[in-house]
Amino acid sequence: MTKEFLVDQIRKKQSFLCIGLDVDLNKIPEHLLKLEDPIFEFNKAIIDATHQFCVAYKPNTAFYEAYGLKGWQALEKTIDYLNKNYPEIFTIADAKRGDIGNTSRMYAKAFFEDLGFDSVTVAPYMGKDSVEPFLEFKDKHTILLALTSNEGAFDFQTKTVDHTELYKKVLITSKSWGNSQNLMYVVGATKAEYLTDIRKLIPDNFLLVPGIGAQGGSLEEVCKYGMTQNVGLLINSSRGIIYASSAEDYAEKAAEQASKLQQSMTVILRNQPKCK
Amino acid sequence: MTKEFLVDQIRKKQSFLCIGLDVDLNKIPEHLLKLEDPIFEFNKAIIDATHQFCVAYKPNTAFYEAYGLKGWQALEKTIDYLNKNYPEIFTIADAKRGDIGNTSRMYAKAFFEDLGFDSVTVAPYMGKDSVEPFLEFKDKHTILLALTSNEGAFDFQTKTVDHTELYKKVLITSKSWGNSQNLMYVVGATKAEYLTDIRKLIPDNFLLVPGIGAQGGSLEEVCKYGMTQNVGLLINSSRGIIYASSAEDYAEKAAEQASKLQQSMTVILRNQPKCK
What we know:
By secondary structure, chain A is an alpha/beta fold. Helix content of chain A is 45%, strand content 16%.
């Protein structure tokens, strides 16, 4: 998927919501556990009920790997279901991979070619040759970790390197590896006040923003400081949507929560003259 | 497996060799491709032929994920085979994972509990709460990336942070998260000259050292600067051993290469009075 197509979808749906499919068998409705593939059945129902309110889905691979072969199969079925039934949806493998060049190439192949995701999250610690193999795929997107939403972000990411913070050094250095067509960044919603500075460094790249809801980030703050002419934001919500109810009405309740967020986004887009 | 057991194995086998099981279907002998599970058959033959020369095996997950469900199954079969037939072998999932706390916990569960690895490599960029869930498992080992063997290591890892290099900051900060019983570090063999300084910061932790052979690192240099009283080193070789031959004699040739490295290690251990 191209960046332009994604921006068109955002304008059409008046939403820049991404729904995180972090499926934990301890949290999904009990009646699903009797089915052959409860993870996929849960995802399918959530996707069918919420797709009109969002532009992206983001399964985090940890939640699938934790269930071994069955988990990996559920991940494959989920991305296949999305690609077949909702090809207009932007798909993100939240995998946070990164390795030496020839190994990163295997990861890129796995997520882009075999599974068919539009994008994958990548960790920057190993530098240029660990990221470039992901950038070589046409119409695919590399989403590099910059400033994450967790407390641990302050251990290294905000430390001063070469007279700037490490996460800014990551932005500055990595800018030349790709461009705003194929390179996005993760910036946590819990650190919205950093977004003004971040936008000075990367005015055009999309940001994937986790941390709204359960982690305490504010949608309004993120948009105030992080929005661009092309919107430039994908706001992720996982637990707040998919676990809105643990009863049989889980998909319906998830849709209600997704719809609420989509409505807030519509208001924000209307009030942002540059985004109309 | 405890650290003491690993050290005992090293002394018994006079080897601190780790063999990287990075299986690429384009590189393995053609006759294996006709079999139902060529990846596992290749690993099984390599393991049977080389286990007496090494103390550890390290499959890199990228090479398995690249083959989807079949790849993941081959990884499961490989670790099961190792745990059943060679329980004295230290096993490393080279996965370079790391995510926010509740998500890292899922990865830790996947690699330690479900797959049954002794250790997993973890990326430090997301800080303490992304690493701690791995450290909570008894007799399991977290191998944190410090200074990697690739060129990209110079993009961020060697940059100055708080008056020291980022990789040293990672060592200093992470030391308090675990201890030398459950925390190891990745330090590339291509940067052996850095080991003197590294050993001042972490005198007792084991180091997993990739980059010998195909990547150009020197075994002697690494041992000269990195060895401790408890040896403290696991030297990895992947391509140089497992692809020593692409003909039907691949396992035999792999054993020859592993044996050569083991013999060099025996000489080094004999000449290091502190390691006798």
